[in-house]
């Protein structure tokens, strides 16, 4: 018998999108957290047929009032005993504010017991240089994340939140420092930084790791300064939807596990901020990131194998008689479907990660001058 | 290493309710089927804060048009490669018809490959002698179930569908026979018949099994006559919500497994109807029912233990100063929450059932005259 692969009992309020087919948003996050033993309450901000990567979808968006009413429904029946809230895609500025109000209400309910409630916020606004939400969602997030314990922006979202264009490793460090300071948010992970694509890091870093993804995180010290750590993982040559949601969900489960493993002191500390003598690479957040990325790497590797097999099996399925534009659309649908993350039959990699990545403390002053 | 506990790969379109907190409808069914390895696409007919057992809830119902639009969204992106549809609670007659149209469209898409699509329909209309849907939902179901492959009425719903009051074992057999014939539905399971409560079976059956629940099922022969089987399980002294949904979801996974185990012939037969020489107790449906009930029994036993512990831990939580009515309401909420099925940390009982119940062919002519 192997050790119990489940994390400590954890009740999670998960606020994000729902899709009938495929794995993004709550559809991804719920199963990931449940597989690790969390009791998940999914409050769905949209109900779509499929994710936006297909470039067409049908369904409905919840209004801010509908989101608030669902939460009031929980309150009136005393169903708010959540240990963690994970909030993700929210379709409008008013809805972001409604979710923000839920987070703050849960914090108020828990304020007599520091550490008994923790809010992980994924500020879903855009990617790869462009916003995919309305402009007014940005200020709504800027207000809301001041209350979160951990945020998980991607590189572009970190730029939006910090106001700093990330063009080098030192501007990346600067962006994290600014985010900690501006929003008073104790934990940050910037998911998926492609260092090799940073123009100023063209020499050493790029040469060392042409196909690496880098994840950078930090937990503040008591003076507000960052404790930066870094994990490099091999990038897979395929675009998958829902990986941000998988990252966030695994982080919820593994961070709670790491904080419990650190002993009763930390988990009764507000926002689970480790004492100043804990080094960056030893932070629960750093240990969490390593496990999360290991699980993700295996699931995505299995997904890529299955995708390749499906693309072979379905090649020639698109009617050659169609005009070029329609054929391209059908090919896009076929490729997008084939790349849906294969989660259900690979949950063992969530429970028992098989690869091991290394986390290192990350000090910009150690870098050669041209990379800083 | 134990054998792989997952069932054959199965894509399921699951149409039922969603609740943020607790386990009923799709919230129950999705996790149950996923735990056994099914790839589930949940199309949610309602989005409620909690189940109706709390006697108060907030949230929204999907209209028939919204349900239809979600399905059209799947169709336009070719995301309808489902092996099974499981349809449950649907909030209006128009919505039942919309779900019926989806089932029939999926059947049309599969008609060149008999057995490649199977529709399990839980005609959720009421329980314990009363309807909890609008009156017009009944005729909508009566029209719809003519297209289903397997239906899962409880005792009351079987009475509504057959027009026969089930007051004895022979009227129960008669009801199933009538349902097969009237609706041309090849598989029926009547979940939770309390034989000891049937007035005419007060002597022998009741004496043998004062606290048993009986599940009766049947797959037709080629002449339309029933092949009846029966499984008795010890009843647990507690009311749980969502058990019908758990039963339905486990049945989807285990029936597909049993049909695959029966060999390629059966699974390429329309509606998976076994040849006439297969005895009632050897039917895939009968073997399925045994496994399903074994899993359920363990999960509900664990739930009852956890419920009892929670009730002890929260006793005295309700303010004694409240007036009698309000105190009663608060006590009801406390008891309802405590009885939520403990699914997440008990999925091993879904995967590897540990108890073994017996299935027997059930012939009314074998019974003493007073029980027929």
TrEMBL record, chains A, B:
CDD domains: pyridoxal_pyridoxamine_kinase. GO terms for biological process: pyridoxal 5'-phosphate salvage. Its EC number is 2.7.1.35. It comes from the Eukaryota. GO terms for molecular function: ATP binding; pyridoxal kinase activity. Transmembrane segments: none annotated. Keywords: ATP-binding, Kinase, Nucleotide-binding, Transferase. Gene3D superfamilies: 3.40.1190.20. One of its GO terms (cellular component) is cytosol. Pfam families: Phos_pyr_kin (PF08543). Residues 118-205 form the Pyridoxamine kinase/Phosphomethylpyrimidine kinase domain. NCBIfam families: pyridox_kin. Belongs to the pyridoxine kinase family. This is pyridoxal kinase. It comes from Aspergillus steynii IBT 23096.
């Amino acid at each position: 018998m192997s050790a119990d692969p489940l994390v400590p009992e954890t009740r999670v309020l998960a606020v994000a999108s729902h899709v009938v087919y495929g794995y993004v948003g709550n559809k991804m996050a719920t199963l990931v957290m449940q597989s690790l033993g969390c009791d998940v309450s999914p409050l769905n901000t949209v109900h779509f047929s499929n994710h936006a990567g297909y470039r067409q979808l049908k369904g409905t968006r919840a209004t801010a009032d509908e989101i608030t009413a669902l939460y009031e429904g929980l309150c009136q029946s005393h169903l708010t005993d959540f240990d963690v809230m994970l909030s993700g895609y929210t379709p409008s500025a008013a809805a972001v504010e409604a979710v923000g109000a839920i987070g703050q209400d849960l914090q108020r309910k828990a304020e007599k017991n520091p550490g008994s409630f923790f809010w992980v916020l994924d500020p879903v606004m855009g990617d790869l240089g462009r916003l995919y939400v309305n402009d007014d969602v940005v200020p709504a997030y800027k207000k809301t994340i001041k209350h979160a314990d951990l945020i998980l922006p991607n590189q572009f979202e970190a730029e939006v939140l910090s106001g700093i264009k990330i063009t080098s490793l030192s501007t990346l460090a600067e962006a994290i420092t600014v985010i900690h300071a501006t929003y008073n948010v104790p934990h940050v992970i910037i998911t998926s930084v492609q260092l090799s694509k940073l123009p100023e890091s063209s020499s050493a870093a790029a040469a060392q790791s042409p196909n690496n993804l880098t994840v950078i995180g930090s937990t503040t010290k008591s003076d507000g300064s960052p404790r930066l750590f870094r994990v490099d993982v091999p990038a897979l040559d395929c675009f998958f939807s829902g990986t941000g949601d998988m990252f966030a969900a695994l982080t919820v489960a593994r961070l709670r596990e790491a904080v419990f493993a650190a002993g009763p002191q930390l988990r009764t500390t507000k926002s689970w901020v480790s004492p100043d003598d804990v080094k960056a690479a030893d932070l629960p957040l750093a240990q969490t990131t390593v496990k999360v990325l290991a699980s993700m790497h295996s699931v995505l590797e299995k997904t890529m194998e299955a995708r390749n097999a499906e693309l072979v099996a379905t090649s020639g399925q698109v009617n050659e008689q169609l005009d070029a534009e329609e054929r391209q659309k059908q090919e896009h649908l076929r490729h997008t479907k084939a790349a849906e993350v294969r989660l259900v039959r690979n949950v063992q990699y969530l429970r028992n990660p098989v690869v091991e990545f290394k986390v290192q403390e990350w000090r910009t002053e150690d870098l050669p001058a041209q990379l800083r």
